[in-house]
Amino acid sequence: MGFAVSYRSTEPVEPSKYARIQAAIKNASRGRTWLSSEGAWVSRQEDGHLWGASKPNFQPHPDDVAAAKMENLPDGTISDVVQILCDISRVEGVDWEVSHDDSDGPIGLIRNGVADPDVLAPIEAIADVCQILGELEGGLDDGLDIADANPLRREDDDNEPPILKFPPRQP
């Protein structure tokens, strides 16, 4: 299942500021495992705007979960990505339009280091879903993966493992 939250600067950014922003994002991203989401990142487009996207991870791979437990670091979430963008906005004076795969355009803005409520509500909902599915996954894992036993369940549009390890209810 593919789903991403994307962000774009509201104005073009000079190359020197872009370099500072990349360094700030890299620094702010340290100290997290980033199991529940891809971390923040940006690239500079031809028109000078910065753009990036982070995909929540609804089902981290068990090996990654085990490695993260060994590191004993906090998990990076999509909410952390938004917080990093808020910090960049406040420090560097860059405002962001935020959208996601199911929106017809921006869902809101991050201005002067503050995210609109229209940005925070869906981001918090996505983070909650990641947490709930992670807890559900941990509570149901008995070593049997029903999806592996049913090859038809594996057929989807992006060839990733299914989010849930049990089949949908049959009518």
Features:
171 residues; alpha+beta; 6 strands; six-stranded antiparallel beta sheet; single chain
- Mean pLDDT metric: 78
Cα-to-Cα separation, first versus last residue: 23 Å
The class by helix and strand makeup works out as alpha+beta
Number of domains: 1
Anisotropy-based shape: globular
Major beta sheet, strand line-up: 2-3-1-4-5-6
Work out the strand percent: 5-15%
Helix content: 25-40%
What's the main sheet like? 6 strands, antiparallel
Q: How big is the Rg?
A: 18 Å
Put simply, the count of helices is 5
Count of individual beta strands: 6
Query: What are the low-pLDDT stretches, counting only 5+ consecutive residues below 50?
Result: 138-156
The H/E string reads EHEEHHEEEHH
Please, could you describe this protein's structure?
It is a single chain. The chain has helices at 15-29, 62-71, 78-92, 117-140, 146-149, and strands at residues 5-9, 43-44, 50-54, 96-100, 108-111, 114-115. By secondary structure, it is an alpha+beta fold. The protein has one domain (5-143). A six-stranded antiparallel β-sheet has the order 2-3-1-4-5-6. Strand 4 and strand 5 form a beta hairpin. Helix 1 crosses helix 3 (78-92). The radius of gyration is 18 Å and the shape is globular. The model is unreliable at 138-156 (pLDDT under 50).
Nutshell version of this structure?
The protein is α+β, with helices and mostly antiparallel strands. It has helices at 15-29, 62-71, 78-92, 117-140, 146-149, and strands at residues 5-9, 43-44, 50-54, 96-100, 108-111, 114-115. It has one domain (5-143).
